[in-house]
Amino acid sequence: MEIRKIENIIKMGTCSNKKCIFKDTNSQLQAIFSTIPDLVWMKDNYGKYIASNHSFQKSFDKSEDEILGKTDYDFFFKEEADSCKISDMEAITVGDTILCQETITNPKTSQKIVLEVRKSLVHDSDGKVMGILGIGRDITERKLYEEKLKQSIEFAQGVINAIPDLLFEVDINGEYLNFWTHNHNMLVRYKNELIGKKINDILSQESSNIVYEAIEEANINGVSFGKVYSINDFDGVRWFELSVSKKTTGRFLALARDVTERQNIEKRIEFMAHHDILTGLPNRVLFKDRAERIIANSKRNSTKSAFLFIDLDGFKTINDSLGHSIGDIILKTVAKRLQLCIRASDTLSRHGGDEFIVTIPIVNNKNEVVIIAEKIIQEFKKSFEINNQLISTSASIGIALYPNHGEDFEQLLQNADTAMYKAKENGKNTYCFFTQQMKHNMVGLFQMQNDLKEAIKNKEFILHYQPQVDLSRNKIIGVEALIRWKHPSMGMVPPMSFISVAESCGYIVEIGEWVIHEACRQCAIWHKNGKDIVVAVNVSAVQFRRANLIEVVKNALETSGLNPKYLELELTESILINDTENVLQSVKAIKELGVQLSIDDFGTGYSSLSYLKRFAVDKLKIDQSFVRDIVKDKDDAIIVKTIIQMAKSFNLKAIAEGVENEEVLKVLKEYGCDEVQGYHFAKPMIADEFRDYYKEFSIE
User: Fold this and answer.
1) Which residues pair with 179 in a beta bridge?
2) Ramachandran region of residue 655, left (φ > 0), alpha (ψ -120 to 50) or beta?
3) What is the pTM of this model?
4) Which residue of 16, 168, 310, 370 shows the fewest CB atoms closer than 10 Å?
5) Is the separation of the CB atoms in 129 and 121 below 8 Å?
6) What kind and span of H or E run contains 632?
7) Nearby residues of 126 by Cβ (< 8 Å), 6 or more positions away
8) Where are the beta strands (DSSP E) in 293-408?
9) Nearby residues of 64 by Cβ (< 8 Å), 6 or more positions away
10) CB of 142 closer than 8 Å to CB of 47
11) How far apart are CA 458 and CA 64, in angstroms?
12) Does 361 sit behind a cis peptide bond, omega within 30 degrees of 0 on the bond before it?
């Protein structure tokens, strides 16, 4: 009811005695006032209450008799009464209705009431001012809601301002309705211009399809997660991971997180997983995939294919005499020369070290393979000119044909390898086709197997230890246990000369068990003497797959008394990538013992983000082939830096092996590498030598 109408009603009911306004003689007026839900009151010219309705009386827990004749100072705090008096005076001064807000405290409950008040002068029938009429609406809850809403809006805006992501609103048709972003250059500049435009007006067709698909998915399921799309920005292509949520209004709220750096890392890792980093050629993983496709195609079409296993002659001598950096240059050049010798349909891959493999998908006759093999032999007659120095090498080639020499990848590869060794026996710098007779002439291999059997029985093995240094503390924090074979006639034999044979005949399981026990025993002795270090032990793929590995580790720890956290098992990437579910269970069992796990020679062929997410490893060990030349080789430097950054992103430690000089060490420190090992600090040594070295160790 408008205040003017109430004023007129009051005039109609006014008598000479002002106190009769709500008396029975004006019962109609009283009834009208009582039905008004708002608070209604009237004061005389002296600020005394001369009328009030039921709502007013109820709000302040006062009867009509308790109110009449009293002023605001009789009920309310002085500050509140002063405020009421000021607004009363304003109404008198203005001479018209005023709107104000008053906060009053209930004298009994001490509860504050916020009123939205209209005040107007009331005149008698003669036009004289007889007082002030007030109508107050309780807006306490509304004010509380408004305050909470304000806080929510401020909080939401603060969150939006703080997050680095893109936040926007679209409709079902992909039209941009709102943008909230403060951190992305392109959209900060042009976000107002984007409102009203559709997704396909801004993004490429491919990216638009991805976003529309996410909107449709959210429309059906309520939400959509994990779709990745690209935006062409001023700085190049940026990648975003999109999450979309359907709102009750039928609109869609989308959050796009910039994952460009992650995408770039994953692409680099993906490349590393399928290509040899040094030469850029397909590695064993990609080669195997292509080879199996070729075999399947040959089987389907009843055609022949060929595998050429190429090994450089005398390459180890070049590496040892001229250094690995020169050796790497030769390998890169060899890769380029080999590509000149094969056809576009053929595949060249680096198998590892100085070994390369060529696959020829379709062979019509044996002579076609001979032509390619002879081209390769002729190509190696050209010397390599490096740093004004001419270096010569040659190649031995073993050849296996499908289906003559094998019907699956492993068999063909093994037989081509066998034929390659036969080519070396024939004087090197030549090629040789596989024959079944070659399998019967592996006397040397048989002798090696017998010698290994005797070595296990006679305890001819010994462990050497290479220190591992924590760069942040300048302290030796661990050692890698490296096996050596004290052969009765050949002297000290390095592991590269017998480990592969031990794996092929199964002796590696017994040898590996001895290594774990001996390493734990020696480390426990060092701990008793105050050396707080971890011992790292390499675990063979063959040994890892044996069901008793967990028991071996458990028994070694119990026997030696070594705390499990001081034992670290080094696993190769090939272990983790094959038979994933069984490997996952084994890894979990090892971790439950409290033992640490690291990935050895990380980045040499099987690198993948997927197993880093699944397996609870503690450390990545960067292969020395990447570390040696990081000062000179930009590609190696990028790879090492990327692996270190990736390790940190997964909360893993990174250790670099093969640190041979101060320059390499300095770069690794700059990259934030956690730990290092290599000849710059010490060669592998026996336990007694390490004890003395530990005492004298210091870093400048």
Assistant:
1) 168
2) beta
3) 0.44
4) 16
5) yes
6) none
7) none
8) 304-313, 347-352, 355-363, 384-386, 389-391, 394-402
9) 22, 52, 57
10) no
11) 113
12) no
Q: Are 463 and 515 in contact (CB under 8 A)?
A: yes
Residues 192-248 have pLDDT tens digits of 667 788 888 888 888 889 888 988 888 888 888 888 888 877 677 888 888 888 887
Domain spanning 3-142 has what CATH number? Answer: 3.30.450.20
Phi, psi for 460 (deg, rounded to 5): -90, 5
**Residue whose entry in the numeric block shows the structure tokens 């036969």:** 422
* Dist. CA 368–CA 360, nearest whole Å: 10
What sign has the CA pseudo-torsion 189, 195, 199, 202? Answer: negative
For the chain, the straight-line distance linking the first and the last C-alpha, in angstroms and rounded, comes to 90
Show the tokens assigned to 465.
Answer: 């230890």
Cα–Cα distance measured from residue 591 to residue 618, given in angstroms and rounded to the nearest whole number? 10
Long-range pairs, 233-240, Cβ under 8 A, ≥24: 233/184, 233/185, 233/186, 234/185, 234/186, 235/185, 239/263, 240/166
Q: pLDDT of 150-173, one tens digit each?
A: 888 777 766 666 666 777 888 888
CA distance 131 to 69: 13
Q: How many Å apart are CA 258 and CA 269, to the nearest integer? A: 19
Helices 324-341 and 366-379 cross at an angle (nearest 10°) of 140
Can you identify the CATH homologous superfamily of domain 163-258? PAS domain (3.30.450.20)
Residues of the chain with CATH 3.20.20.450: 445-696
Least Cα distance to 42 among 162, 123, 108 occurs for: 123
Which 3 state secondary structure label does DSSP give 635?
Answer: helix
CATH annotation of 268-441? 3.30.70.270
Q: Helix 549-560 vs helix 580-592: angle between axes, to the nearest 10 degrees?
A: 10
* 445-696 CATH fold: TIM Barrel (3.20.20)
Phi, psi of 479 (to 5 degrees): -140, 155
Residue 293 is encoded by which pair of tokens? 């496709």
